[in-house]
Amino acid sequence: MTTSTILLLLLSVLIAAGLSFYQYLYKANYRSKLNLFLAFLRFFSLFLIFVLLINPIISRKTFETTKTPLPIVVDNSQSIALLNKGVNIPGLVESLTQNKTIKAKYNVQLFSFDDDFYSNTALDFKGKQTHIDMAAQNLKQFFRSQNYPVVLLTDGNQTIGNDYVYSFQQNTTVYPLVIGDTTTFFDLKVNQLNVNKYAFLKNKFPAEVFLQYNGTKPVNATFSIQQGNATIHRQNISFSPSKKAQVISVLLSADRVGVQTYKAVISSSEKEKNNYNNTKNFAVEVIDQRSEIALVSAINHPDLGALKRAIESNQQRKVTIVKPNEIKSLQDYNVLILYQPNFEFKSIFEQNKKLQLNTWVITGSSTDFNIMNQYQDQVQFKVSGQNEDYSADYNPQFNSFATENIGFEQFPPLQHPFGTITVKENANALLKSRIRNIGTESPLLSFSENGQKRNAFLFGENIWKWRMESHVKTKSFEQFDILSNKIIQYLASNTAKKSLVVTHESFYNSGETIEITAQYFNKNYEFDEDANLTISLQHKQSGKTKKYDFLKGNAEYKVSLDGLEYGNYTFTVSENRSKTKYSGSFEVLDFEIEKQFVNPDINRLKQLANNTNGKVYYPNQVNELIKNLLDNQNYIPTEKAVIKKTPLIDWVWCLIMLAISLSAEWFIRKYNGLL
């Protein structure tokens, strides 16, 4: 309180006393107790009014003790229970969190994690994943810009996330408390398996398997891949203390359509502590993309052989070169390539009016353009009898399918009658034509889509020169062949738009998050944000049925199916208002990653401790850990003074006392007839 404020308060006392004396005592003939009491009330009221007008600042000083946070972070995954059957982990946690001396020095907080992060939740050691990196990131958010230690109870076997060794912030000291038996056990393990999710029928697909050995003596083992009761691959391998890992690459045949489940197995005559990690299931969805393509031409031309070889470079394609009058039924084919149609193609056009097969039309100097204008309305031709050479300009805005510029501008020009080519507005040109150095803006290779019908148009012959030029530049036909197959793929894929589109995988690993997304469209094919979607799920082996509701997300609906046991499932997604349904199936493979370990990852935990200036401890060293935490002078509780300044006008009691004193004075004067 300043000197001026004190002088004003003293002056207020004098003025309040003088006014009270003058009003009640100065001219009074008899100074009764009533007059004295009324004078006191008047003095008290006037003094409070003056004090509130002066509004002095009242300072109050208190002391607060701030303790260093001590997060105790416990791994709550399945591997903890599997590797630590002889250790009372809850008792170990309690000895740290309930220690009175620790609590006197630190602000102890208990956290746990598996694939998520929890605060003060019961430990059950049923987590399907271990995400130590996420625990480190959450601690950074909770204790920003603070210097604190962390006690980490874990086996160090992380299954998802970034490398936790470098995840903790630099002002944090980590003390890993290693959970698990550190004794080295003999163990063979299928550590990792890389395989594509999809393969094409009649093709071979690669499987890359990483095998790991843990032991102290040489051992011979057998690796095999099984499908059902059949062994489709087997080979002998050997390990030693200096050769603890091997990579096996196998080519497997895709002989049947659908999801094919396989099992990678490693075994030996030695007894192991953990046999679960000797096997890893995997699955591949085999897709039948076989397409029968009719390459129809009334003339002989080098383009026919070039197209056939390019398209059949994909084993899923079969091209039949046929004359127009030799085709009895178009139903035997998936795609038509009409090479330079003339009057002999009338029957082909007539048949395709009903079948509506997707068509690739290639025009040139032998094309009858009157027939083209008569039997299709996608392109209108007004051409002369004079031929012109047309070069190609790549259109980077093309978006009908993914492609790249393979050097079209340097390819030899194609030959085509000179004239005007008019295409519909919904056409999308991949290549535009150029006459020498002058761009015409007319299409050279164009695609159109009308409902379910798709068409492609190439306005020029001698495309065989493009294939040869591509080989000259790259020493391979691959780039040209890939382009040809993308065109066929575009024409072969004409799935109609559906009102309910559901996205899901054909198989999942047990323990991983299973998400199914869906989109529902109204009759105008606009995303319906008010759809009511549910999924009914049935386990084929047990017959158990579950039902879930979809949650709306960003332009999609999503449902998470957690805790599903392994096996085959069928499901039906329903939109409850329109009764639209989609049915599908998937398989949950028998694979739990938390059961793959036999030892804690000591090396990584030691590296973590070294990076953060901490130290590794074991369950029988918990008292040493407590002593270290107590003796560590880097983490001492700090006491700080807190000064709170409050204006007197904020004190409600001052106003209440003023109201009471004024009211009391008025009532007493009224009662005694002094008003």
Structure, explained:
The chain contains 14 helices and 33 strands. It is extended. With 675 residues, it is an alpha/beta fold. A nine-stranded mixed beta sheet has the order 16-15-17-18-23-22-21-19-20, covered by helices on one side. A five-stranded mixed beta sheet has the order 4-3-2-5-6. The protein has a five-stranded mixed beta sheet with strand order 8-14-13-10-11, with no helix packed on it.
Which properties best describe this structure?
675 residues, alpha/beta, 9-stranded mixed β-sheet, 5-stranded mixed β-sheet
List the SSEs and their pairings.
Elements: H1 3-24, H2 33-54, E1 57-66, E2 68-75, H3 78-83, H4 89-97, H5 100-105, E3 106-113, E4 117-119, H6 132-142, E5 148-154, E6 172-178, E7 187-195, E8 198-200, E9 204-214, E10 219-227, E11 230-239, E12 245-253, E13 258-267, E14 279-287, E15 291-297, H7 302-311, E16 317-322, E17 335-339, H8 346-355, E18 358-363, H9 369-375, E19 379-394, E20 414-423, E21 428-435, E22 438-450, E23 453-459, H10 464-474, H11 478-492, E24 500-503, E25 507-509, E26 514-520, E27 533-539, E28 545-549, E29 551-552, E30 557-561, E31 567-575, E32 580-589, H12 602-611, H13 622-631, E33 638-647, H14 652-671
Parallel strand pairs: 2-3, 2-5, 5-6, 8-14, 15-16, 15-17, 17-18, 18-23, 25-32
Antiparallel strand pairs: 1-33, 3-4, 7-9, 9-12, 10-11, 10-13, 13-14, 19-20, 19-21, 21-22, 22-23, 24-26, 26-30, 27-28, 27-31, 29-30, 31-32
Helix pairs in contact: 1-2, 2-14, 7-11, 10-11
